[in-house]
Amino acid sequence: MAKIIYGVAGEGFGHSSRSHLIGQRLIDAGHDVMFVGSQKSLLYLKQYFGERVREIFGLSFAFIDGRIDKSETLKRNLLNLPNGNKMNDELFREHFEPFGPDLVISDFEPFSAWWAWRKNVPFISIDHEHVLTLCKLEHENKNWFSRITASVVTECHYVGAVAYVVINFFDAPLRIDSAILAPPVVRPIVRGLVSSRGEHVLLYSTTGKGQEEIQEVLGKFGGQKFHIYGFKKEGEYNNCIFKARSTEGFLADLASARGVIASAGFSLLSECLHLKKPMYLLPITGQYEQIINAHYIEKLGLGVSAEKLDKDVLGRFLEQLDKPMPDDGRILWPDNDKFFGILQDVFNKLEEPISIGVS
Asked: Whole-prediction pTM value?
């Protein structure tokens, strides 16, 4: 049995759901796992792991009008850092050191990783964000500032991992020997869905803004129904059906959708790939990871992308919905079994190998 600390970034649902899946696999294999999270990940993980979960100070993003405000984000984190460091020092002293971990895993959570580096405890990085720094990618010049900012933030998150497991949906050359490319993983509840082809297109808004503009654009395609989530309203307005927040309802609509319109977050994108749903991606302004995701979705013929919901792009997207999904060898389709096989290979190379029950 190994003692493992699992640090999870507080922003974004993907970090939490992925760590839930991997952490449960480690527990089922007989290992003692302590989770640390902040903000959203803290609340999410406590639902499932209770007393195994500790709070760590985490970095956060400031959103203004649906986009990341870089100056406000920097200001907010710098102001909170002194109290955050004090909080983390107490966590390290009262919980990390008595626990005596054999391994630390970080899903883009910097403070547990830096603690491991300082204490000479081996640690492994498992996330999607390091695709920006550890893979050779195509970049558009117009996004140079967001690219540099994202690369610096990712580079500074932590150094010295024994291995960087980079989860991604397309094959790309790696820059360092300690990086390993792995396919996306999806939640058991999504793996259990049966994909079908209904009459609606699913639209999910992460900001809950721009309702009138969305209705105006979608209304130009009266023959197509749209099921819409993310707004604080319910009701049917011509061809737009606004639905209340519901995990079961959303997943049912996702499984039966003709296609999906959403931001370019990695978690939902992976679920769309698993269910073979074409995507119209609207990356959050200034969030370079989403810009890259959207670029490669379009490049690989898996959907279209635009900076905003646009009538012409939407028309092109709807025309493509009857085409089969591409059979491109560069696509890394979600594959939980393959992912855990890769992770087992990484664990086998540790000085003290750790088994997760994968042959």
From this structure: 0.90
Task: Please spell the DSSP secondary structure of 25-82, one letter per residue.
Answer: HHHHTT-EEEEEE-HHHHHHHHHHHGGGEEE-------EETTEE-HHHHHHHHHHHHH
The helix (run of H) or strand (run of E) holding residue 241 is strand 240-242
Tokens of 290: 């989403």
Q: Is 186 buried (19+), middle (13-18) or exposed (0-12) by CB count in 10 A? A: buried
Is residue 179 helix, strand or coil? strand
Fold of 189-320: Rossmann fold (3.40.50)
Q: What is the pLDDT of residue 249?
A: 96
Provide mean pLDDT across the span 135-150.
73
- Say yes or no: do domains 3-185+335-348 and 189-320 share a fold: yes
Delimit the domains of the chain by residue range: 3-185+335-348, 189-320
CATH of domain 3-185+335-348: 3.40.50.2000
Residues in a beta bridge with 95 = none
DSSP 10: S
For residue 280, give the DSSP letter.
E
Q: Is the pLDDT reported for residue 63 higher than 60?
A: no
Look at residue 72 and tell me whether its pLDDT is greater than 60.
Answer: no
Q: What angle do CA 301, 335, 330 make, to 5 degrees?
A: 35
**What are 244-280's pLDDT values in tens digits?**
999 999 999 999 999 999 999 999 999 999 999 999 9
Residues sharing a CB contact under 8 Å with residue 95, sequence separation 6 or more, in sequence order:
34, 54
Q: Would the CA dihedral through 153, 155, 158, 162 be positive or negative? A: positive
Choose between 101 and 149: higher pLDDT.
Answer: 101
pLDDT given at position 315:
96
**Do strands 240-242 and 279-281 pair parallel, antiparallel, or not at all (unpaired)?**
unpaired
Tally of CA atoms within 13 A in the half-sphere of 162 that contains its CB: 21
Contact status, residue 347 vs residue 353, Cβ threshold 8 Å: yes
